[in-house]
Give the backbone structure.
Amino acid sequence: MPKLTARLLVALTSLVAVGVAAAPVSPSSGGSLVGVVTSVDGRPLEGVAVSARGDGKTFTTTVYTARDGAYSFPPLDGGSYKLWAQAVGFDAARVAVTLLGDGTVQKNLTLRSLTDFSSQLTTVEWMSSLPATTPQDRRAKRLVGVNCNTCHQAGMALRNRFDAKGWGILLDFMEHTGGDGGIGREALPFIHAYKGEILAYLTRVRGPNSPPLKYRPLPRPSGESTQVVITEFDIPPGNQPGVPVFDDGSDWSQGIPSHYESRSPHDAVVDRDGNVWFTDQATPSRTIGKLDPKTGRVTDYTFLDKDNVPMATHDIALDQSGGVWTNVSPYDPKAGRRTGDGFFVRFDPKTEKFRPFPVPDSLPPVGSGLLNIDSKGNVWASVSGGSRPAAASKDAGYIRPKFDKDYPGGAIKLDPTTGQYTYYKAPTPAGSYYGVIVDAKDNAWFIQSGYERTNVVDVQTGAVSEVTFPPLAHDDVACTVEDRRLAAKVDPGPQTGPPWHLGPRRGAADKAGNVIWYGAPQGNQLVKIDIDTRKVKEYAMPYPYSFPYAVAVDKNHMVWVTATASDRIFRFDPVTEKFTVYQLPTRGSDVRFVNIDNGPGQPTLWLPYYGTSKIARIEFRTATTATASNDGRR
């Protein structure tokens, strides 16, 4: 063991000299912290998350161990730090470290194995561990995956054991709770219909006397996946500035946190000055926030409705001149959720003023239509179908509405220079829409998530056409006549659905190519559409039930996919058609958006942790995002 440590220290010193010093990570000067992580038998451990947090700081830096167990932080400011190392199956090692000046401090850590490590598992690992040996089990497991993962992570509940009464109470609550936390709604039809099957399954596999599960943890990061530096910034609640969230997923042994205490930033974008702007639809008082990554300071900005109540926000975008756009919705504090009658606002970072762009009464409200901005500065969002104004803001029992011919849903465009809105109607009406993508030709694509189709607005002619997603291929989960009757009766939304549900959500365009991409959470697929031929191709995610939710494309054509149930982010290379997996240091992160800083050098990723009130920056130590220059696109 002493000889091993000595050899590794030499390797680490070289790594600090030639590897980390060249990495584009912050801060730019300070002490070096290095070490080796081993098991109790002296075996070096690869892919261990090693985290450091300075006393009094509001951010944590994490690196991962290499094959020889070695870790090395970028230069850190002098001071006192808490240092800890975590890996599934091991008890965390925790020590205090003091860095003085610009010297190198070595801290070797030893991890002891655990007999019961179930609390450390992510949702995707919990889902993988649930039995699916019989047709009945496969169907029930799929129903759990499709209907019990969107509003929250199922792993938060699955780590518990309940009897039939306990699971029944939980399912009753889920049946009447919306994805934005609203309680007391009319029953969600799919959860209502499948409650009996789900209840019987969970009682049998996670009841008080159920046999132990055979846990299936995912492999730890290895090779290229360890070559990242992840900085996680605390985002305090909007109504409690400066107060950190206690249960923030940093300690894996505490399991996946509850959304009702820990959620906050939903979307986040970085501007040209390096500031990160984020939305908040969960905590009162804040409409948007600004994070200064140099200091970790968070500044809140509030937009009030006509009754002086702070308005909530869902998504965010930057225009060509640096303006911050979002779509605000009234927040009902009694119901604990947003209502649907929303509109666009632009925030000027220089004047720190909001400018509203109300929607005319003749058009449907914006709601949370997930905005996007085209090359001319026009702002786009999707709008729900029904009638003005009832269907867009009414929960309506989820039965297929009788659509007003003038309001089938679709996309809406705002010209900020004139304040004029233009409404593009969907060819096929739907009650639920989710998101707009602006492609390389400035055409706008908007999703009808529950109907497994997307629509495209030809910006030259104004014509709207449809592209349908193919069904799940080679599926071994049984579907019934009752499933199809239910799907035909109700207006399927993005949060729940039948066993075959794909649930396409948030997409992105390759602005230097001819494709757009979607995440399909319930179907566990990444979907590619050729914008010229309309050909659709689907790629299965590496791990079942990962819940791929949002997509972004970097300057090298690499596709980045957030997967809300996995606490990982995936890079997909469209040339090799291979995924690379990067693990996040937080449990229950529930990332629903990814923004890419495509500045000089390596792209940098920014991830808002909706589930644990953080914003993360991912920087790469090696050339992980190799260009696709050999495929004729550059």
Residues 1-28, 388-398, 624-634 have pLDDT under 50 and may be disordered.
